[in-house]
């Protein structure tokens, strides 16, 4: 087995079939099929079930994905280490992030990283739960993960650096802003208001559901899976929204008011990585993250 075959195997997995994988690899589709067939012969098991034009991973194929990614990641790390000795600072860094940490602190950290390492290309993928981030880092699909959780994340075998705590705020719909002057409200003050809410499973939705369970008269007018839609919906006058404080700077730039919700609920934001075998780019990014932790809270996070 050689790394070329593993690369081709992962291309079929990542591009949902042989045709797209061949286009991505810039090779003929029959050549790709022959390479995968050779890999299957070496292993003695089928890696894909061919269903019409689709290629569905077999049980053996599913088991191979994680180890194959680790092999390719370790190869990249070895190449990057050698290149670093020659003064080459290029490369690629794969990051996965949940939506709110993807606003901040990821934006600030990427800005700092790219100033120091302008030749490294960053690829940022999306996740919606801490479990997705953990699995991506563990499997080697990405090297760096940003996750937000109601409690600090502790994962065996994964390095976790706590970055910051983001209190939940209310982004106020200006068309129905009947809240008293000030910078904070109580949860019961949400009574009688219409909200744009995240789907269940998020800390923001938990706060809304908890207030409802306590008898607060809240109307959920829209439930949104893609949180990038929430701010435009508030701007359009659809309703208020409960979000982490990382969204406050964008809300303020859009002319919206934000209020701290008391008693305060915090989103614990952390950066995750493998404990060893990281590429130089990933190690450099973690250094930027450590600098972020050591700094005082940015004025841009003021509520």
Mean pLDDT: 89
- Largest sheet, if any? 10 strands, mixed
Q: Please report the distance between the alpha carbons of the first and last residues.
A: 56 Å
- Report the β-strand fraction as a percent range: 15-25%
Strand and helix order: HHHEEHEHHEHEEEEHEHEHEEH
Outline type? elongated
Share in helix: 40-55%
Helical region count?
11
Over the alpha carbons, how many angstroms does the gyration radius reach? 23 Å
Give a short summary of the structure:
With 303 residues, this protein is α/β, with parallel strands linked by helices. 42% of the residues lie in helices and 25% in strands.
Could you please describe the fold and organization of this structure?
Strands 3, 4, 5, 6, 7, 8, 9, 10, 11 and 12 form a ten-stranded mixed β-sheet that branches. This protein has 303 residues and is of the alpha/beta class. The C terminus is likely disordered. Helix content is 42%, strand content 25%.
